[in-house]
Design brief:
Chain lengths: 411, 87
């Protein structure tokens, strides 16, 4: 099997709209969660989110393309453009059929769905925009990114709710491993701070309602955590076959050396109590990479800040690693700062893993104040930690019981 | 505003092209870069803009849409449906 490395990354996030700003804010422990500005949320039970700020859409997306794309596709186009630039790859010199794209989304163009439904109710079915469907569908970001960069190889979207971004990275890695492609743009994108989305997740009681204190609302693994915070944005990684990257003298951030996946097959939204399926995904990822639990220097946890996720993810980590290795493990949740970017989460957390390896720094879990007896591992509370990282894991767990885990390794 | 000016305005707005390019003989697809989705949206915007003149059935039929390839053909079509030159 071919080896797969990361040679470029692009980010649109609540902590900044480029890789450098994102990373410096992340290791500084900057909070990206504020009162919602995208719409008037005063009558909503949840009034806070991690919105993308200062996104210069005109710098990345042609005005004509803007008119026919949802914000989620625009974020994906921007993150892809930055990732391609960062990698230094020139697609005009590549065989286009050997270059592909899997940039997916959890909920796709949900704000377009919302506005078009309202339009239909007001003006009738004959007044729906011809761009409605292409704006909504979750695969259109991959399609538009392919047009922008001339990528004619494997191209689709994989959807697994909050594990979407990591499944996309995993599928793209496999396409290169099995020799289907030399280069893949992989990632996720989400523009989910919309009325129906906030109202819908709020109705599930999945979101934090600490509306009066957005700065401290997201507190993964803390005893007083009370729900996740909706985030948005996009992260795209340029994945490349190792020899291909070396031949063109590319900068290599890290290798993706293992991937594991499973399903709880238990409940629509709640994780299974024993954490066995989550643990299985981690075990399979480590086995795939040929590493043992004691070799893992860092785990970027799913860590959503919901009471259930953080408790059961802790159970799963202990089950996968063994009690001793789990206690020695350095864990953190970057969602404490970015909020939960849904379908982009697993992608941006892959970026975090690659940057942690590259820079030898573990970003913190902010707002950690009171230990929870059920979450008794080392979550890197509040302050970033310098640490040499050779191997790290990234967990993503989605509604529907989807579990994904990837292994990143220093090259 | 004249009928021609109004149609031009809708085309410029819908296709994001320069006003100078939108001549009467300009072909929507070949000269102005419209694709099938742009054309569908353009027709919807035309129907909306002229609905007071087009009467109860303001729809432009599929058969008619196929004939509307240039800016001028849209103007002629609207004249034929009773839209006055001075709006």
């Amino acid at each position: 099997m071919k080896r797969v490395v990361i040679t470029g990354m692009g980010v649109v996030s609540p902590l900044g709209c480029n890789l450098e700003m994102f990373w410096s804010n992340l290791i500084a422990g900057t909070n990206g969660i504020h009162t919602i500005t995208r719409f008037d949320a005063s009558s909503f039970p949840v009034k806070i989110a991690a919105e993308v700020k200062d996104f210069d859409v005109n710098a990345f997306v042609d005005p004509k393309v803007q008119r026919r794309t949802d914000r989620y596709t625009q974020y994906a186009l921007a993150a892809s453009a930055m990732a391609v630039r960062d990698s230094g790859i020139d697609f005009s010199k590549e065989d286009p059929f050997r270059c592909g794209c899997i940039v997916s989304s959890g909920v796709g163009g949900i704000s377009t769905t919302e506005s078009e439904v309202l339009r239909m109710k007001e003006r009738g079915p004959g007044r729906i925009s011809p761009f409605c469907i292409p704006e909504i569908i979750v695969n259109i970001a991959s399609g538009m990114v392919a047009i922008e960069h001339g990528l004619k190889g494997p191209n689709y979207a994989v959807v697994s709710a909050c594990a979407t971004g990591l499944h996309s990275v995993g599928c793209a890695m496999k396409a290169i491993r099995y020799g289907e492609a030399d280069v893949m743009l992989a990632g996720g994108s989400e523009a989910s701070v919309s009325q129906i989305s906030i109202a819908g997740f709020a109705a599930m009681h999945a979101l934090s309602t600490t509306n009066d204190d957005p700065e401290h609302a997201c507190r993964p693994f803390d005893k007083n955590r009370n729900g996740f915070i909706m985030g948005e944005g996009s992260a795209v990684l340029v994945l490349e076959e190792y020899e291909h990257a070396v031949a063109r003298g590319a900068n290599i951030y890290a290798e993706i050396s293992g991937f594991g996946e499973s399903c709880d097959a238990f409940h629509m939204t709640a994780p299974a109590e024993d954490g066995s399926s989550g643990a299985y995904a981690m075990v399979m990822a480590m086995k795939d990479a040929g590493v043992s639990p004691d070799q893992i220097d860092y785990l970027n946890a799913h860590g959503t800040s919901t009471p259930l996720n953080d408790r059961i993810e802790t159970v799963a980590v202990k089950r996968a690693m063994g009690e001793d290795a789990a206690r020695a493990l350095t864990i953190s949740s970057s969602k404490s700062m970015t909020g939960h970017m849904l379908g982009a989460a697993g992608a941006i957390e892959s970026v975090v893993c690659a940057m942690a390896i590259k820079n030898g720094v573990v970003p913190p879990t902010i707002n950690y104040a009171e230990p929870d007896p059920d979450c008794d591992l080392d979550y890197t509370p509040n302050t970033a930690r310098e640490k040499k990282i050779d191997v790290c894991l990234n967990n993503s767990l989605g509604f529907g019981g989807h579990n994904a885990c990837a292994v990143f390794r220093k090259v | 505003m004249t009928l021609e000016e109004k149609v031009k305005e809708i085309v410029v707005d819908g296709l994001h092209c320069n006003a100078d390019e939108v001549k009467m003989e300009a072909d929507l697809v070949n000269d102005l870069g419209a694709d099938s989705l742009d054309q569908a949206e353009l027709m919807m915007n035309i129907e909306d803009a002229f609905k007071d003149h087009l009467g109860a059935d303001s729809n432009i039929s599929e058969t008619d849409v196929e004939k509307l390839k240039t800016v001028g053909s849209i103007v002629e079509y609207l004249r034929g449906r009773g839209v006055p030159d001075n709006l």
